[in-house]
Automatic annotation (TrEMBL):
Record keywords: Membrane, Transmembrane, Transmembrane helix, Transport
InterPro entries assigned to the protein according to its UniProt record, in alphabetical order: MFS_dom, MFS_sugar_transport-like, MFS_trans_sf, Myo-inositol_Transporter, Sugar/inositol_transpt, Sugar_transporter_CS
Metal-binding keyword on record: no
Single Gene Ontology MF annotation: transmembrane transporter activity
Name of the protein this chain belongs to: Polyol transporter 5
Compartments, as annotated in UniProt: Membrane
Species whose genome carries this gene: Colletotrichum orbiculare (strain 104-T / ATCC 96160 / CBS 514.97 / LARS 414 / MAFF 240422) (Cucumber anthracnose fungus)
GO BP of this protein: myo-inositol transport; polyol transmembrane transport
């Protein structure tokens, strides 16, 4: 019997692998075979490589194994578990003493033991009785949290209403402001001007606003950036309401878009960095809930002012300042993001902030110290501190690139699904279907109400069923209902109710499916998948994708509606739903109930391996279990599948899960 120990070379950069191989039989695996199990394996102390690529024993053994940057394949590896309990405590005490937290040194020692194995804190004998009770209560009541946590998350969510309110304000205003400015001809130049006025806020949000997020966050912090954008989004809707020409309206919305882009890229990050990992999905999802609440309130405003002569559209556009005013007035009562403070070396303030957001100091110390440990790991991978260097890392560093694939996919899918042709132009669509202007406003109000109601169940599903599951389940249904709605527009005979009823029904069913899946997932997923050091750049790119394509959609739909007819436009977006489903299947990985830092390990799996596992293992299982209704066992996760395959190939066994991927 032989044993092989593969260790990383000391000081070697990049991801490395550490493998214990026991009971190897027959021929030893080649160097190339071992290399398939990780990356940068170029030094195996027990063996040396021969000219044929095989291994032979060396006389000299290596030092004790060391795993610098290994990451598990879809099984999260806690860096604190690499240390003995004594080492973990000593390191935590040293951290507290060297970062201005000496008075809490003993607390951080106990917190390190809890963070080392969060699910088995009962074995930590040094915990005080009140600390143990607090941890047990947190485990059994995942929604428990201090008032400041709920206030901060809720206030940020209200800020999201600005975007939804503006969408629906312009939705209703589209029926009247073109007449005010003499651009109401349904073809040619006027058609493009109306589309440009509607789309400019999204184009500037994606192409300008998203990319000023990093400097604003760097110099002003999360709260300061949110306050600045809230001021912008309070002033510009009012400016829109006082516009004297379409050029003036265009200018106000141009600036408004910059504020929306900067806000959209920061508020979800701020919420995600404050939320406990067990309910992060639900808490951050308040963003989407308030986006749709803003849509509903905007439709309410449209209905309320519908009978005001001439200035109705001004009130519809101007009323969008209300939620942003509330956001700006309340943001400085919230604590600054603990992770932002930690990133800027203000550890004592960061710990104080974390404790304000947690129910007990032991929970705050555990979450803060664990975040710092992972942040230090991330810094080892950082290639540069410059803005453009970090932005480039979103495309060049494998782990960050895979996160970027997922975030860009869900953001693009939100526009591909066609929901925003309803949000932007539902009143116009309902008028074309046969409703009067007033009836169209009421039908749009129903659309907004359904979005709010259908989003609420997702608060409880997103952290149990998961982000990937919800989107994969709802996109095929959205395709069917959108196509059915488009085909219903072809019916010209029968009573008015028979012609209009099916259109409204299928649009409402489409909206329900969107609200249960893609709607809540897009910004939630994008805010959580990037590492701390790349979070602003990653989210900026995701927001750029989302808003730029929203702008393109808003710009092109009026022309598409007249050239392709509403049925053709609906059919076009129904087809895009299927393409979006395929993209999500390939690139969006599950992130439910993991800490922001543990997601580094989720995205350590190469895309090729991930897609292969989903196609060869999970897709056949899904078809047999849920379509053919066969009672078959659930297949193992990707890590278990990979280990089993390699055990069979190499006839070996692993004493612990330490496979690493580049």
């Amino acid at each position: 019997m032989q044993s092989i120990h593969a260790y990383p070379r000391a000081g070697k950069g990049g991801n490395v692998v550490q493998v214990w191989v026991y009971h190897a039989v027959a021929k030893l695996p080649s160097f190339q075979e071992l290399a398939k199990m990780g990356s940068d394996i170029d030094h195996i102390p027990d063996y040396e490589k021969t000219a044929t690529g095989d291994l032979k024993p060396q006389a000299e053994l290596a030092e004790a194994p060391r795993l610098d940057k290994a990451t598990a394949v879809n099984i999260v590896q806690n860096p604190l578990k690499r240390k003995t309990p004594e080492q973990a405590v000593n390191d935590a005490v040293s951290f507290a003493e060297t970062h201005g937290l000496g008075e809490h040194a003993a607390l951080f020692g106990r917190a390190a033991l809890v963070a080392r194995d969060m699910d088995n804190f009962g074995s930590v004998t040094t915990l005080q009785e009140d600390e143990r009770r607090a941890l047990e209560y947190e485990r059994d009541h995942k929604w428990h949290g201090p008032k400041m946590l709920w206030y901060s998350i809720g206030l940020c969510a209200i800020g999201a209403a600005t975007q939804g309110w503006d969408q629906t304000g312009s939705n209703g205003a589209n029926l009247s402001f073109p007449k005010e400015f003499g651009i109401d001809r349904p073809y040619g130049r006027d058609e493009w001007i109306v589309g440009l006025i509607n789309s400019i806020i999204f184009l500037t949000a994606g192409l300008i606003g998203a990319f000023i997020v990093d400097p604003l966050n760097h110099y002003f912090g999360r709260r300061g950036e949110i306050f600045i954008t809230a001021c912008c989004l309070t002033a510009t809707p009012i400016g829109s309401g006082f516009a004297k020409s379409w050029q003036g309206l265009f200018a106000a919305r141009f600036i408004m878009g910059i504020g929306i882009g900067a806000k959209n890229a920061t508020v979800p990050i701020y919420s995600a960095e404050m939320a406990p990992h067990r309910v992060r999905g639900a808490l951050v999802m308040f963003w989407q809930l308030w986006v749709v609440a803003g849509i509903f309130l905007g439709f309410c405003a449209n209905v309320i002012v519908k009978d005001v002569p001439r200035i109705a559209w001004r009130l519809q556009l101007g009323s969008a300042f209300i939620p942003s005013f509330v956001l700006g007035a309340g943001i400085f009562f919230c604590p600054e993001s603990p992770r932002w403070l930690m990133k800027h070396g203000r550890h004592a303030e960061a710990f104080k902030s974390m404790c304000r957001l947690r129910a007990h100091d032991i929970i705050g110390a555990r979450d803060f110290y664990y975040s710092w440990v992972i942040y230090e790991e991330e810094l080892k991978e950082a290639r540069g501190a410059g803005y453009f260097r970090r932005l480039w890392d979103c495309f060049s560093v494998p782990r960050i690139r895979r996160a970027n694939y997922g975030a860009s996919t869900v953001m693009l899918a939100q526009q591909m699904c066609g929901i925003n042709i309803i949000s932007f132009y539902s009143s116009t669509i309902f008028v074309n279907a046969g409703y009067t202007d007033v009836e169209a406003l009421y039908a749009s109000l129903g659309y907004g109400a359904i979005q709010v109601v259908a989003t609420i169940p997702t608060l409880f599903l997103i952290d149990t069923k998961g982000r990937r599951t919800l989107t994969l389940a709802t996109f095929p249904l959205m395709c069917i209902f959108l196509l059915a709605g488009g085909l219903s527009l072809l019916k010209q005979d029968g009573s008015r109710g028979e012609r209009i009823g099916p259109v409204v029904l299928f649009i409402y069913l489409f909206t329900i499916c969107y609200s249960l899946g893609e709607g809540p997932v897009a910004f939630q997923y994008s805010a959580e998948v990037f590492p701390t050091i790349q979070r602003e750049q990653g989210m900026a790119w995701a927001v750029c994708i989302n808003n730029t394509f929203a702008g393109i959609l808003s710009l092109t739909f009026p022309r598409m509606n007249s050239v392709m007819t509403p049925t053709g436009a609906f059919g076009f977006y129904a087809g895009l739903n299927l393409i979006a489903w395929f993209m999500i299947f390939c690139f969006v990985r599950e992130t439910k109930q993991l800490t922001l830092e543990e997601l580094d390990q989720v995205f350590s799996v190469p895309t090729k391996d991930f897609i292969g596992h989903e196609l060869k293992v999970w897709l056949p299982y899904f078809i047999k279990r849920h379509i053919l209704r066969k009672k078959i066992p659930k297949p193992p996760a990707i890590i278990a599948a990979i280990i089993n395959a390699r055990n069979q190939a190499f006839q070996i066994s692993f004493p612990r899960r330490v496979i690493a991927y580049k």
